[in-house]
Amino acid sequence: MTIAALNSNPAPAILPGSGGLRGALSDLLWRKPSLLLLLMLLPPILWLGIVYIGSLFALLLQSFFSIDEFSGLINREFTLKTYGDLLQAANLDIILRTVTMAALVTLASAVIAFPIAYYATRYARGRWKALFYLGVMLPLWSSYLVKIYAWKLILAKEGILTWLLAKLHLLWLLDAWLSLPIVGGNSLSVSYTGTFIVFVYVWLPFMILPVQAALERVPGNLVEASSDLGASPGQTFRNVLFPLALPGIVAGSIFTFSLTLGDYIIPQIIGTSRLFIGQAVYSQQGTAGNIPLAAAFTVVPIVIMGFYLWGAKRMGAFDAL
Amino acid sequence: MRSDRGQSAPPGLKIAAAGGLLFLHLPILLIFVYAFTTEEKSFVWPPPGLTTQWFAVTWNRPDVWEALSLSVRVAAISTAVAMVLGTLCAAAVSRTRFFGRETISLLVILPIALPGIITGIALRSAFSLAEIPFSFWTIVLGHATFCVVVVYNNAVARFRRTSGSMIEASMDLGADGFQTFRHVVLPNIATALLAGGMLAFALSFDEVIVTTFTAGQQQTLPIWMLEELIRPRQRPVTNVVAMVVVLVTLLPILAAYYLTRDGDQIAGSGK
Description:
The complex is a heterodimer.
Chain A (H helix, E strand, L loop, with lengths): L2 H6 L11 H12 L1 H31 L2 E2 L6 E2 L5 H6 L2 H34 L4 H15 L2 H12 L4 H8 L3 H8 L13 H25 L3 H9 L4 H30 L3 H4 L7 H9 L5 H24 L7
Antiparallel strand pairs in A: 1-2
Chain B lengths: L10 H24 L18 H7 L2 H34 L5 H13 L2 H15 L5 H26 L3 H8 L4 H30 L2 H6 L6 H10 L4 H35 L2
Helix pairs in contact in B: 1-11, 2-11, 3-6, 3-8, 3-10, 4-6, 6-8, 7-8, 8-11
Protein name (chain A): Putative spermidine/putrescine transport system permease protein
Membrane topology (chain A): Multi-pass membrane protein
InterPro entries (chain A): MetI-like, MetI-like_sf
């Protein structure tokens, strides 16, 4: 067989090149990769830029408007008066309450997440590893409202938790907890404790995944070397595991912190009547009709998260995402 | 080969890990029991009796069907938009290095990195400034924006693993850009796109925070449920809907997991 024969009979896997306009366009894009890049980037940038960034600017703009206290109409002139309103004691209270809650929720999530993530990376193999992964993914993706609803069922006065504690003769413990000043209340479903539990429950998977990703990168022999050199398990945790897992914890805390800052549904359904930032935003823009103040309120989590992300980036948390 | 295989975990760690997983799963399982309870007025435990009558009652509720249909339509269109935008973005970011590349990834991630209420109220104030009335499309606009990131993440991970030399080989063999895309690129990223699309669908189907700001008077299924949580009308119907929602979101998640599983294991084995 000669080369010429081979050439005259090309393998059918090679498709005939298309000529005409399509071919010319294809050639053009190959010769000018920057044009292809532009064409690929244009739709997403237009969408996100106009719809999202545009909206954010509209929001920011509104925070510099003010509301006329007599007519209730929005006065479209530049003013810092709305930000002045934000600094009233009642509003500062709301901000402080939300940030404290976000910090506590983040801390608790990290404590609960670490053993799960550590077990999944170091001890779970094969089938178990998949099971652990799904065991975190399924609650993460389950319906947010259903999860809150489940906790309403659990924490209700006639619900399963009271029943369980009664069976264990531990009701006095619950009553003692509920009689405490700040964290207590009439029942768990109308107390800060309830809000806290539900926040931790709903955001926990967001903490487990990045911590696990960070721990996956810690070679097992580092832990062994540490114990060979005479460190106790506690010392190994403090000096080896924890520092290496920290970027993962910080990455997870971005989610738990930010999600808690902006949530208005959980404290509304399970919690006291005192407001969180999200609820304040919602009621200001809805019933009160004060969109400028609502807009100014949303700037608070944006600024807090801005600093948070900046700090997280410095700690290398984004590599663990 | 790592030397720590076969070691068993300290009992304290086992208990903490098992306890954490139980904490994540028991509340959801509880929903399944409540869907069958005979109790109508309260959340009493244990249920006084079990019945399946609430499934029939829910089936005959037109408001549930309307909410479900709106949710499915919104999720389908948003997913389609997000898949196009997310794939384009992922292709651009992973194929080439260009000025502002980091900014693009940040731009994509921002809608879920910032609290949902900010996205929601930002869209709402933009609609009111531009005097756009609430409609089906205002909901889609919001949903597609935060669904892009899910598709993007899946596609970027896959692009990173497919080698660029395959595209060059295809071109060397005489295929033009469109043929290369159709016969080389697409088969490589198809399962990642499908997985991303399913997750985007689940995300949109379940979204409530942004939707409350962009829906006006329309009710998606999550908004219907939120209404029931705040002002309960018929609790057993809510129980049944909650159970169905858990089952419906379960399927795309499991499917997405099986679609991306093999690749992830290959990627993980290099560590």
